[in-house]
Each structure stands twice: as C-alpha cells, then as structure tokens.
C-alpha cells in the first residue's frame, strides 16, 4: 500500500526541522479521518434508537447521534436505553509492506465509552473503559501484509464499569456515543523510544526522562528554535539496562514560555545503537517554571499570576465532541480575543490539538480527569490518569491537573499524578479547599469575598459567575475582578462556561437544542455567536486599564493607565486614536507614543489632540498588542446630551399652537401634529400627524413611583403651549410639564421621587405596540444591551438595530433588540407607520426597548426584570442574576437602585427632560 498524503504529512511534521539524516521516525497511517472536517466512512450497525438494527455507513470520527443513530441524552442518567445502545464498526485496511519487522500499534484517541477491539477476528487487548483517553494496542502479530485486514470495534455508549458511568455519563452535559477522535496505526522501529517526559525550567535547566524498548545504548537531544536553527549543543546520556534513561543539561538564556509570550522550541530526541540512529522523536517544549507558594500565589517564571479563565467543553453543534484542529484554533482565538489567559478543561481531557494550540497561541491550561459528581474506581482511575499524562505531560500550557469535579474526586488517585508528572504540577479538587487552593464554586459576592479575604488558601474558584441565558459571565464580573485584583491571595478564576451547548437534533428536523437552561451557559452561542457578555469580559480583562476620564474643556490629553500584564511592557503596544463627528463622519486620526509602563505599574498616556478637538463628538482609543491583536477600543464622549438634543429640536419652523378641550382631553395642534393629553393625569393619550395615528401613548408612567400627577392646567408661554401638573408635597409630589412648540416638537419635563428606598426601576414608561416596530437608530453606547451590573463592553456612537425577538441562549441573532441600552442621547424609532425621534437633555439615560421573555428557575436566581409599558427612558435599571446567585447577591453593581426622597423636597427630586419629534421625514 502506498503512503497516503496524510501519512506523508505526518512524517513531515514529525520530522520537524531536521533533515533526512534521521530516517527512523515513528510513522502514522490514519484509518479514520483526522477530525470533523475530514472523515472516513466505516461500516456501522447501531443496536438501539434511531436507524438501528441494520448495517450502514458512518463517518469516523464522529458521535453517532449527530449522524442520525441512537438516542440523544443530556446526562443525569436519563437515557431509557441505557446498557443497550451499542455501535458495531468494521473497516478494512492494508499495511505498508515496508512496515514488516516494526512494532505496530493501533491508536484510538477517544472512544465513547467502552471499546472492544478486534483485528482479523482476534481480540487486540482488554476492553478499554473511559471515553476521553488515548489508548493503544500492539497488533503487530495480528496483521497480514499485502492483504486486507479487518478492524472490528464494538462500542458501548454506557460502560459496563459502574464507576465510569458515575464519572462520565451521569453529568451535566450531553452524553454521546461513538469513535469521536481519530484512529491510526503507528509503526515504530523495534528499538524505539516508548515514552518521554520533559521538564524545561525558566533557568534553562533541561531534564527529560525516557523509557526505551529494544537494544540501544545512547540517547541524545537537540533543540531547535522557531527559526529552525539549532539552539545549544546536543545533550546525551547512556541508557540503563532497564530501558530507562534520563538526560539533562542547561541552556543559556532561553526564550521563556508564558501566555503572553508563548515561545516554543522543538526537541528532537535521538536513540542510538552502536552509533547508529535507530529512532527519533520530536516534541514541542517550552521553558517555564511553575511555582505554587502556599498562602501566597501561583508564580510562572517568578511572576505571580491572576488567571482570567473560562471553562470549555469540547463541543460543536453538528459534530458533538468530534472536533478538528481548526475548531481548537477558533476556540483559543475567541478566548484570547476576550483577553483571557487561561482555560479549564471541563470535565475531561481535550483533544491533543487543543493543547497544541494553547501551547502555540498562549493559554494556561487546567487539564482535568473526568469526574462530574462521581469518580472512577481506583484501578480504572489509575490506568486513565496514566493514559492522560502519557498523552499530555509535555505541554507547557498545562499549569495544573484537576482530579475530577465537584465531589468527583478519588483521593487515592492524587499521588498518581505526581508519580507520572516529571514537573510535579499541583493537583486541585475543583469545588474544594484542598492542597492549598480554595476553588469553591459560585460563592455569593458577600460570603465569597469575605471568606476568601479572611482565609489562608490561594483563592482560585474553578467556576464562578455561572452563565445562564443572558445572566452571569460579564454581569458582576467587574465587582469580582476588582476584588480579585486587590486580594493578594487571589489567583483569579474560571467563568462557567465558554459556549452554549446547543446540539443539532437530527431527530427533530435539525433544531438547535440546549436542553432548556441546562446547556445555555455560554459566553458565545453554539456557532460562536457573541453575546453581550463577550465584549464586557473583553474590556474588563483587558491588560491595559484606562482610568475613567471626563472630556472637559480643560482636558490636557493625558490618560492615566494601569498595566495589568504579567510580563509585557506597554511600550510594546500600539495606541491609535480617532476623533469623530458622528453626524458628518469627519474624523482626525493619530498615533500616540506608547508609554514605558512595566507590568503591574501605573503610567500616563499623552495624546496630542488638535486645538479644535472639542468640536467633535467622541474620542476613540484603540490599543493593539505586540501580536497585532486589538485589546479593546475605548470611547470617550465629548458632546453632552443637552447640546445634541437642542441641535436636533431647535430652529424648526412651524405654525401657531392651538388647543381645544373635550370632557377628558386637552387636544393640542401645531404644524400638522395633533396631541391629546388626559385632563385628569396629564398623560399623553394619542399622537396623530397628517399620515394618521402614531401609536405612542400612555405615558409618562413613573416606574416604582407614584403616578400622582394632578391639577392639570394649561397656559401659553410666548408662542409655546404649556400643559403641566401642580406640586403638592403630600398627594402630588411628582410633577410633569409638557411644552408644545410651533414646530410641533414636544418637550416633557418630569420631576419625581421613587416610592421605595431600594428600587429595581427608576424612570418613565410609554406604550407602543411591538408588532409595529421595525428597528431603531440611536446615539449612545452600543450595540449590545446592558444590565446594571454589566455596563462595560460597548462603544459610544450611532447604532442601527433591526427588530428581532432573540431570546439569549435559545435563539442566537445578536445583538438582541429587546432590553436596556445605555447612555442614550436620542433614538429614532423606525416603525411600520411613521418614524419618530425621542431625545434627552440628561446624561446616563437608559433606553428600554420592550421586554425579553420572563424566565426564572427553582431558586429564582435568574430573572430578567423589565418595567411596565413597552418603551422606557430610565435612570435606574436592574441587574441580572446567574444560574446560581440572585442579582442582589452578586456584588455592589447588582444591588437595587438607592434614592432618598428627602421628604419630597422638590429641589431634590429626580428629573428627566425628553424631546419628541413626531414629524420626521422618512
């Protein structure tokens, strides 16, 4: 059989930077495809569920549910065909004649869950139990050359080992079946390196431990830099009679590996027998030192680290846990885009290519033995820990090992990690205070921060701010992160979790199913649609922090900065700025000299702006890192709402304002506009122009305050008509004033007091039928909606949004239309009838557009709250909770709005001024 292009590629990649002198490489021949983007069809028979009871074809690697077989199961032991659902696989293959005389292994990178393997009718070895681990069998004696060989694999979705099901199957995630990672043959010389483990320290000290098979007498290792050139001299040592060997030496001034500077070297290990090369193995390595100092912190290369991390499932909607390297790159790039520096493998070890990408792009990794709330028995777990470390031990990105999750810890396995890991990386028990780490999950802000601040362990919650729909993640992260920054015992933490686990249901017309709220936990959607929290996290976790700055007339162009990098000076970043007139798009751009600010220090950025800078609307500053990645673009509004409102509404011609009365209404008319107000309450009842009715009415309604406007009168102020209420401290302490100008522009001023000391909502509501809304165009922060505890991540500008009915985590057209939008200056409502504009003189007004569907849970933690009416102009909005915490227990930003009534002193009332233009020309 000829070598396939895949085999040739693998040989080339394994060959690395060395030349053809080293011919004795480990050769690979894929029997399956390499991932979900390249598969090979095998014969397949499913014993239960969809399309069962018949031989057909299936793509390998894959999860069979996504191929239309078996039964979907979201875990929690609810599968009705448990113990019956099996997949039978067959595949014929030929072995290259040149492989005669070599040791040939068949390697499975991942099979869910029990795998019984036969070659030409003979069992390859014991049934493998455990879904996420690379295992191999020596099949050298079972193969036939120049003939077809038959591979048969019987895969049981649920294990015959109860502890495997407890660890992997009864879990809060989708439970799939199948050969979901690649299958290949590897051919090794009879004299070969069986296993190797590397420890490359920041000092340049290099140690490796190896085991060998067959006659060999010497081992050497040569390092190569990213440029392919030799780095240092070859190290060598003799091999013990036991087949074990070690090799060590010191390299001068290596480029160190970290998440910020992921420098890698290629280590080429060469096995010699009588000065003849018999085998070579190539590994990517990184020089870095991890040190855990009890009651202090985690140090990488001598620097204390704050982990900005997220939990990540290996998942795609159309392929389940069958992934590709392209998928891994996509995931890591999105995490890096959010300025994350760490990822936890939840709740099982990942594909090897994901760790490769973390090595090359720079992410700290917590690699995890499977175990949700249950764990493996000790014999099974010991075997799987060894398989996991054999596969993963050399990745510089791995900083910790996790022994199970949330009670899924078999403590007998803890010593096995140390025995198998040359680097002796720390083992954590996620959710426990163990081994010097307090990793407790989902602590309420007050309890959690208090407990963390007064404890003695290193604080590193391996799950916090549990997302559900639009809650958690970015919501309250600012509070938690600020406290983590201040706490010297904090090592940061890991958000739950990265992506919504919405799966394509081949049994339900290919709908995307996240199993209700169980899988809707992501910062991004199933296909990586970016939710609002994505951008909030990006800003909060930016390694460049801008101190708040108001753009006043005396602005001198100086911004105060903080460098929140661990290793990088800000002088390696690029600082670009742009002044923009939002109405004309006139702009001026420039580049500021990057300041010399060392990690963890503060400094100043000086921008040389033109003398007329104050005539522009907004200043943007974009910071780009040394790799060319945008950290964030900050916006600093220059214009104030009062100036913009008067620009929009002033200098408009009109006609005389007239007024007529009915029994219940004041009806004002000007410039073709007719406005009706209640004579009893002063509330706007109807708006008409020459084209007919504009269904904007029934306001203002004070939310969480008394609607006690009374004693409504009218009068003329020059050419303007005024309709207003009278103030009474006891019974009519909230007041309104309507002013109708000859142009038809309507002005509303309301002074009001919230009825409660603590309020979810503060502001004014109006009615408008949702069915008539087509979209909006507004000036303010956008484009994403906000909550009181999730205000960061947006940019100031003019935004256009088409109406959508997106429910976060259930449908994925982002940004959502419905919800709260911050710092509104004006909004043009684009309707099916006639468009109109509302502007405000006030700063910090929230525009509310309708209501997302109300959702709750058994604990009433996640509840999106909206005021009455349909469109609101708010001065206080609620926070949003998480799956595990109510909003008011998630930190100061999520607390209710606090206002005093000052005994209804009108001088201390809240006030809001709005302008309405119902005569826009479409």
Automatic annotation (TrEMBL):
Keyword tRNA-binding: no
Reported cofactor(s): Ca(2+)
Start and end residues of each Beta galactosidase small chain/ domain: 723-836
Listed GO MF terms: beta-galactosidase activity; carbohydrate binding
Signal sequence bounds: 1-20
GO biological process, one term: lactose catabolic process
Chain ranges passing through the membrane: none
Keywords carried by this UniProt record: Calcium, Glycosidase, Hydrolase, Signal
Glycosyl hydrolases family 2 sugar binding domain: residues covered: 57-189
Lineage: superkingdom: Bacteria
Domain Glycoside hydrolase family 2 immunoglobulin-like beta-sandwich: 192-288
Reaction catalysis annotation: Hydrolysis of terminal non-reducing beta-D-galactose residues in beta-D-galactosides
UniProt subunit comment: Monomer.
Family the entry assigns: Belongs to the glycosyl hydrolase 2 family.
The protein, known as: beta-galactosidase
């Amino acid at each position: 059989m000829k070598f396939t292009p895949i085999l040739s590629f693998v040989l080339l990649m394994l060959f690395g930077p060395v030349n053809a002198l080293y011919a004795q490489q480990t050769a690979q021949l894929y029997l399956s495809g390499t991932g979900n983007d390249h598969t090979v069809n095998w014969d397949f028979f499913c014993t239960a569920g969809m399309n069962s009871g018949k031989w057909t074809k299936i793509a390998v690697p894959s999860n069979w549910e996504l191929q239309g077989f078996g039964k979907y199961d979201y875990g929690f032991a609810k599968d009705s065909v448990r113990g019956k659902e099996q997949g039978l696989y067959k595949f014929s293959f030929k072995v290259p004649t040149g492989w005669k005389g070599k040791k040939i292994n068949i390697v499975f990178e991942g099979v869910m869950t029990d795998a019984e393997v036969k070659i030409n009718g003979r069992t390859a070895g014991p049934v493998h139990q455990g879904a996420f681990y690379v295992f191999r069998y020596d099949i050298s004696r079972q193969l036939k050359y120049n003939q077809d060989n038959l591979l048969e694999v019987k895969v049981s979705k649920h294990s015959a080992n109860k502890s495997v099901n407890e660890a992997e199957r009864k879990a809060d995630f989708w439970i799939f079946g199948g050969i979901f990672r690649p299958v290949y043959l590897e051919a090794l010389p009879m004299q070969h390196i069986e296993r190797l483990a590397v420890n490359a320290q920041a000092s340049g000290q290099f140690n490796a431990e190896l085991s060998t098979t067959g006659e060999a007498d010497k081992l050497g290792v040569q390092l190569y830099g990213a440029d392919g050139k030799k780095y240092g001299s070859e190290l060598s040592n003799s091999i013990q009679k036991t087949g074990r060997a070690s090799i060590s030496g010191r390299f001068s001034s290596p480029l160190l590996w970290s998440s910020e500077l992921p420098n890698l070297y290629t280590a080429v290990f060469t096995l010699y027998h009588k000065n003849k090369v018999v085998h070579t193995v190539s590994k990517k390595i990184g020089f870095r030192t991890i040190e855990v100092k009890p009651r202090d912190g985690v140090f990488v290369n001598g620097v204390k680290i704050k982990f900005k991390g997220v939990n990540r499932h290996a998942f795609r909607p159309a392929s389940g846990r069958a992934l590709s390297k392209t998928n891994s790159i996509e995931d890591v790039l999105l995490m890096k885009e959010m300025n994350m520096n760490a990822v936890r493998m939840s709740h099982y070890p990942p594909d090897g290519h994901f760790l490769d990408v973390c090595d090359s792009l720079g992410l700290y990794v917590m690699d995890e033995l499977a175990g949700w709330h249950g764990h493996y028995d000790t014999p099974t777990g010991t075997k799987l820990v060894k398989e996991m470390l054999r596969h993963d031990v050399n990745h510089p990105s791995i900083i910790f090992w996790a022994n199970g999750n949330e009670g899924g810890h078999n403590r007998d396995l803890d010593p096995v990690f140390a025995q198998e890991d040359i680097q002796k990386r720390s083992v954590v028990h996620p959710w426990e205070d163990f081994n010097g780490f307090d990793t407790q999950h989902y602590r309420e802000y007050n309890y959690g921060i208090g407990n963390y601040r007064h404890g003695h362990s290193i604080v590193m919650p391996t799950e916090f701010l549990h997302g559900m729909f639009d809650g958690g993640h970015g919501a309250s992260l600012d509070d938690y992160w600020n406290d983590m920054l201040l706490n010297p015992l904090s090592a940061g933490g890991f958000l739950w979790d990265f992506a919504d686990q919405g799966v394509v249901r081949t049994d339900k017309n290919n709908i995307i199913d996240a199993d209700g709220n169980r899988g809707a936990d992501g910062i991004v959607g199933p296909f990586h649609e970016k939710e609002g929290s994505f951008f909030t996290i990006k800003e909060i976790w930016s390694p460049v922090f801008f101190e708040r700055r108001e753009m006043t007339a005396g602005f001198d162009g100086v911004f105060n900065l903080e460098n929140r990098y661990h290793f990088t000076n800000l002088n390696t970043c690029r600082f670009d700025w742009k002044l923009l007139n939002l109405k004309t798009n006139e702009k001026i751009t420039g580049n500021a000299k990057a300041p010399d600010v060392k990690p963890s220090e503060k400094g100043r950025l000086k921008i040389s702006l033109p003398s007329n800078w104050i005539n522009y609307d907004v200043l943007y500053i974009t910071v780009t890192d040394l790799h060319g990645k945008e950290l964030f673009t900050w916006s600093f509004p220059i214009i104030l709402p009062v100036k913009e409102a008067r620009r929009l509404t002033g200098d408009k011609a009109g006609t005389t304002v007239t007024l007529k009365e009915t029994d219940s209404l004041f009806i004002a008319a000007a410039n073709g506009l007719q406005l009706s107000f209640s004579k009893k309450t002063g509330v706007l009842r109807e708006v008409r122009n020459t084209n007919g009715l504009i269904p904007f009415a029934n306001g203002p309604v004070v939310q969480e305050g008394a609607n006690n406007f009374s004693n409504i009168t009218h009068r003329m102020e020059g050419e303007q008509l005024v309709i207003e209420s009278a103030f009474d401290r006891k019974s009519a302490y909230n007041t309104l004033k309507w002013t109708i100008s000859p142009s038809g522009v309507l002005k509303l001023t309301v002074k009001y007091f919230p009825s409660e000391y603590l309020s979810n909502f503060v502001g004014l509501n109006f009615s408008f039928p949702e069915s008539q809304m087509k979209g909006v165009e507004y000036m303010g922060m956008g484009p994403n909606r906000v909550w009181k505890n999730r205000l960061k991540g947006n940019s100031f500008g003019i935004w256009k949004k088409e109406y959508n009915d997106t429910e976060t985590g259930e449908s994925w057209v982002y940004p959502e239309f419905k919800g709260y939008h911050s710092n509104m200056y004006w909004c043009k409502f684009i309707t099916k009838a006639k468009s109109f504009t509302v502007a405000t003189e006030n700063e910090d007004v929230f525009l509310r557009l309708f209501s997302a569907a109300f959702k709750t849970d058994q604990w009433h933690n996640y509840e999106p709250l909206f005021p009455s009416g349909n469109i609101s102009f708010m001065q206080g909005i609620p926070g949003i909770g998480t799956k595990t915490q109510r909003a008011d227990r998630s930190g100061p930003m999520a607390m209710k709005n606090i206002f005093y009534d000052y005994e209804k002193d009108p001088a201390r009332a809240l006030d809001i001024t709005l302008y309405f233009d119902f005569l826009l020309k479409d």
